[in-house]
Structure formats: C-alpha cells, structure tokens
Amino acid sequence: MQYLDLDAVASNAEFTLKLNGKEHTLKVATVETFIQNMQDLEGLSMNASAADELKVAVAIVKRAFPTIPEKELRELNILQVKAIADFAQTANGEKVEKVSEDNEGNAPAAS
Q: Are 88 and 60 in contact (CB under 8 A)?
C-alpha cells in the first residue's frame, strides 16, 4: 500500500522578518488563509481607495505574520506594507511572477 505522509511534508517557511528588533516568522498559508486573502483582493473594486487597498495589505501581512502587532504594522510606511504583503503572498505560493513572452524561460531581472 502506498500513502502520502503529510506530517513529513515541510510546513514551515524559511523566511523571517525583523521589525523593531523582533523577529517574526512567516506563517505558511493554509487553504483558509489563501481564500481569505483572495476574497479580500477580489473585493477591491477598480475604484478602490488607497485606504481600502492598504487595509487589505495590512490584513494579508497580519495573516502571514500574526506575531506582528497591528499597531506596529500601521506605523510602517506604505511601501513597506505593500512590499511585505507582496513577499508574503509570493513566499506562500499565492502569487507567481508573470514572465513575459520575451523573457520566457529566463529568471526575472534583478531590480
């Protein structure tokens, strides 16, 4: 008999964020977390305000790094929050980088 041992599948992320002298480890997204993140993102209309977009970004970051106090997240600048949210989604497999046809098969250029 063959079986898949899910207990043996790695469920820890190898990413830690340091903020205000404290380290916060990325919590691997569950299916439920993924659904919540996607629902939040899909709920943003084309005319969503910047405040609405930031609220969603903060929620995504809070789910990815639950040990970060929300007060500390709200004290970050906009670019920091968006960068953390984007990284968390990419690290959790919720977002993949698009490759243009010109660069198909090549690694993304360093920025």
A: yes
Q: What is the pLDDT of residues 68-94, one digit of tens each?
A: 998 999 899 989 988 888 888 887 777
Other C-beta atoms lying within 10 Å of the C-beta of residue 99: 12
Place of tokens 């916060």: 24
Q: What pTM was computed for the model?
A: 0.71
- Bridge partners (DSSP) listed for residue 18: 23
Calpha distance 111→102 (Å, rounded): 17
Q: Which residues contact 105 (CB under 8 A, 6 or more apart)?
A: 99
Residue appearing with tokens 């919590």 = 27
